[in-house]
Write a structure and sequence with these properties.
single chain
Length: 295
């Protein structure tokens, strides 16, 4: 639909120059879409698919002074044809390319606790992302621990707020019990420990945390695993409350482009007319979709 809209806008702006057209796409284009272009143009429309960007194809595109719509996508999921060819074509037309990085992607953490809990899905938790100690994202939902870090809907959303990871330090904090204040959680833990008075520390967490998280929590808590619930001090319970409300996960990198949902970066939007999507660098060249630096 965005290809069609961009193409239609091009004809509306300059119908006299539209003697023909080239559409560069990152996958097979439905025939009815091609027919739409042909019906609008009344002339020949050529569709070039990204994997076929041979030198010959690029030469044909360069020689034809007709309308061109560049809708090749980004570089995420390259198996779909999003191989970054659109950036090369845009650069040839004089455009600036903002460095493409993965977005809406899982996050890598070297924290060994993530691997210990891989496969654990958490629901109704709050994830807060910090950049140099300042919160830049905060949302409640679902997330997942993996062998390389964290993933799931909350993580993907948070990833879009990351900046230059070479210049900033990032970490996530997970509130495991967002519906409870720290005082309410303290009271609940106190009641749980009273009911499970003779259980060791890990067993005393059975009502509070998923089973795969219990031993990890005890290790991070720093309490002797043999400690009975009725021996746990007030200060130790306060520390447990803090860990439940502020479970920290250092973020070391984004996941790779091959598994990112979208690409952040691409053709600089400063060089594209937002009303028509026409290039400010090369008249007759139009952009649509993820090839642009919009995410």
């Amino acid at each position: 639909e965005d290809i069609t809209a961009a193409y239609d806008r091009a004809f509306a702006c300059d119908p006299k120059s539209a003697f023909g057209g080239i559409i560069a796409c990152n996958r097979e284009v439905p025939f009815d879409l091609v027919e739409h272009f042909a019906d609008q143009n009344k002339q020949f429309v050529e569709v070039i698919i990204a994997p076929s960007y041979t030198d010959e194809a690029l030469e044909r595109m360069a020689k034809r002074p007709n309308l061109r719509v560049l809708a090749t996508g980004g570089v995420s999921y390259p198996s779909t044809g999003s191989t970054g060819d659109g950036y090369r074509l845009a650069q040839q037309a004089g455009h600036t390319i903002v460095e493409p990085v993965p977005s809406l992607v899982s996050l890598v953490s070297h924290d060994p606790d993530c691997k210990k809990m891989m496969g654990l899905a958490l629901k109704n938790v709050t994830l807060t992302l910090f950049e140099d100690g300042k919160a830049i994202f905060d949302e409640q939902g679902e997330m997942l621990f993996t062998h390389f870090g964290i993933s799931g809907p909350l993580t993907l959303s948070a990833s879009s707020h990351l900046g230059d990871m070479k210049k900033h330090t990032y970490y996530a904090e997970i509130d495991l019990k967002p519906a409870l204040s720290e005082e309410q959680l303290y009271d609940r833990i106190t009641r749980d420990f009273a009911l499970l008075a003779n259980h060791a520390a890990q067993g005393a967490l059975v009502k509070l945390l998923p089973s795969s998280m219990q031993p990890v929590m005890v290790a991070r808590w720093g309490i002797d695993p043999a400690t009975k619930a009725n021996q746990i001090t007030r200060e130790q319970k306060r520390e447990l409350v803090h860990l439940c409300k502020h479970w920290k996960v250092p973020i070391d990198a984004r996941g790779d482009l091959a598994h990112a949902v979208i690409t952040s970066g691409g053709v600089s939007v400063r060089e594209v007319d937002p009303k028509t999507m026409q290039s400010k660098k090369a008249l007759g060249l139009y952009f649509a979709g993820e090839v642009l630096d919009v995410d």
